[in-house]
Amino acid sequence: MMSPTCTNIRVRTARDAEIIFHAVRIGILPMVVQRLGSEERMALCSGCVYVWEERSGSLSESMEQGIERFTEGRSWGPSRARDDFLFYHEKDTAPKSLMVERTRAIRYQEDPVGASAMRPRRRGEHMIKQTYSVFVRPTDGMNFKKWHLNAYWTQEDLDQLLTVDDFTELRSLDVPPNTYLCARTNRMRETIGRSARGNTFPTPPRLYTNGPGLSLAPLELLEECRRLRRDPTDEVILRSFNVHRNFHRN
């Protein structure tokens, strides 16, 4: 059975997430390389953290690594953003979640010792999913990769969970700066879009020549300018032209 990336741990900040990402990258912690099977879904409990790579779709499914969509067999409410994280509260009355909990209860009754990780939740407990996504800066000239971190916990267990500071091999990690770039940043998404078109690293804005003596600004620069307000004096002059033109039409 495939294990989570780490267990009995909570992710407090983006720094904690980057430490876990880096531990995966250098081989200290495992990456989840396939969708969870039925046994792995049953074993998911408070404190489980999964790091997985998103399949980009640029190669055929048989050649490409990564997971297209991570599923754990539970039903979640809408996302709520806080800092760079997204949080989802489980719908404990949804059919999928109820089925998982019933199966966990049966397994635990059959083998309380062997299925200790499958202890059914106490009444009133609600599972919370916390996600964080980054683009991983390449070191081999290839394109950026998109990694995700999924952390699961209940409010009742949160204070009992460990942190990266409680693990010697994690708290001593030196994460290179600008290696894990938050995917929720608009500017970062634009950078990765350019990377996917063949430029591994971002390039400064430049003018594109279209014939002798004519230069065109890049589209992203024009879109940025479009959001800026005109000078008030220019607004008055433009309105005067519109009034003059409408007068002659009438």
Task: Please provide a written account of the structure.
The protein folds into two domains: 14-194, no CATH class; 208-249, no CATH class. The protein is an alpha+beta fold and 250 residues long. It is built from seven helices and eight strands. It has helices at residues 14-25, 38-43, 95-110, 168-171, 186-196, 219-226, 232-249, and strands at residues 49-53, 80-82, 85-89, 127-136, 145-154, 180-182, 208-209, 215-216.
Q: What's the arrangement of secondary structure elements?
A:
Blueprint: H1 14-25, H2 38-43, E1 49-53, E2 80-82, E3 85-89, H3 95-110, E4 127-136, E5 145-154, H4 168-171, E6 180-182, H5 186-196, E7 208-209, E8 215-216, H6 219-226, H7 232-249
Antiparallel strand pairs: 1-5, 2-3, 3-4, 4-5, 4-6, 7-8
| Average pLDDT | 77
**Biggest sheet features:** 6 strands, antiparallel
How many helices does DSSP assign? 7
- Order of helical and strand elements: HHEEEHEEHEHEEHH
Assembly status: single chain
Helix content: 25-40%
The whole-angstrom Rg is: 25 Å
**Total beta-strand segments:** 8
Estimated structural class: alpha+beta
End-to-end CA span:
79 Å
Query: What's the shape?
Result: globular
Summed up:
GO terms for molecular function: DNA binding. By secondary structure, this protein is of the alpha+beta class.
